[in-house]
Specification:
single chain; alpha/beta; D-Maltodextrin-Binding Protein, domain 2; three-stranded parallel beta sheet; 15 helices; 47% helix; globular
């Protein structure tokens, strides 16, 4: 009997030890942009923990999708085009949530550039060729009747949005596709906001949360817990301006209250959806930007809608005033 109780105590001790040593889930985000605000808010206000998941956030620029496929992270708030390209090559990646369904970038330029024709013969910078800013630029150029390589040059600038802003301000390129808060900084530096793509209402899956279908299959309850915390992060962002501004300042490392207020107005209110639904039209916009790479692709194949649908059936959203 003593051995029995000893074995039970040993088993309990091992279980507790395993729980205590369990690694937290890792969510990677790929840019220092106001679009990440609901994710940062969910983490810093304990909303993931509230739903039973410990989450670590990590900034990975350029290779977040590779980290997800390698199992180094379990979720990514990263390049929508990279998710689609990976799925087209046969990976099991899928969008599971989204917070902004229009393209939200600013084409920042030298002050003397006033109209689309002025871009002819100029150089436009993007952070990564083939990523969202570049694809949205392609949609703009199509709208304006301009062709890259013929009418103007598009260059990939090494680094993130702050480095691209420096490239524009120093004249290495004549304009750049930039997101907030770097675009607001650019205005204060004397640059011109040539166009705010959000004002054009271009359908685009701007801010998706993605994971692997194998993770959904094998750890569905955990994925649902993450989505619950993420959705509450959206609600907290919209409802708690002061708290959201403090968190925004922490992650983007901006202290200028005017810039922070403008970024919050865009990403915390104006463009932030009241839900986390993935809009199929937004995926269609992305596929259009990919052009020949995605000819014939069905937008529905890149998203798992079953998770949001399950939370709907359970009454999770309605219970929180959706």
């Amino acid at each position: 009997m003593t051995r029995f109780y000893t074995a039970i105590l040993l088993l309990i001790s091992l279980l507790l030890s395993n729980q205590a040593g369990a690694a937290p889930l890792r969510i990677a985000y790929s840019s220092i942009s106001g679009a990440m605000l609901p994710l940062w808010v969910a983490k810093d206000t304990g909303l993931f923990a509230k739903h039973g998941v410990e989450v670590d956030l990590t900034y990975i620029r350029g290779v977040a999708i590779e980290a997800l496929l390698a199992g180094e992270v379990q979720f990514v708030r990263a390049s929508p085009p990279s998710v689609v390209r990976s799925a087209l090559r046969g990976s099991d990646l899928a969008f599971i949530a989204n917070t902004i369904n229009v393209a939200v970038f600013s084409l920042m330029s030298k002050p003397e550039l006033q109209k689309p024709e002025d871009l002819k013969g100029k150089k436009i910078g993007v952070t990564n060729l083939g990523d969202s800013p570049d694809l949205v630029l392609s949609l703009l150029l199509e709208k304006w009747g301009l062709q890259r390589g013929k009418d103007l040059a598009v260059l990939g600038i090494r680094g993130g949005m702050p480095e691209l802003l420096i490239s524009v301000s120093k004249g290495f390129v004549d304009a750049g596709m930039i997101s907030a808060p770097s675009n607001r900084r650019g205005i204060k530096m004397g640059l011109r906001e040539f166009v705010d793509t959000a004002d054009l209402g271009i359908p685009y899956i701007n801010s998706p949360l993605s994971t692997r279908r194998s993770t959904i299959k094998n750890h569905r309850d955990t994925v649902l817990r993450v989505l619950r915390g993420y959705y509450e992060g959206v609600l907290r962002t919209r409802r708690d301006r002061d708290g959201a501004l403090k968190i925004l300042a922490k992650y983007v490392r901006v202290t200028d209250p005017e810039i922070l207020a403008e970024v919050y107005q865009t990403y915390g209110l104006k463009q932030l959806q009241p839900d986390i639904n993935v809009d199929i039209d937004g995926i269609k916009g992305l596929l259009k930007g990919l052009g020949s790479e995605a000819v014939g692709a069905n937008p529905a194949t890149f998203v798992d809608l079953s998770l949001i649908e399950q939370l709907e059936r359970e009454g999770f959203f309605s219970a929180r005033g959706r």
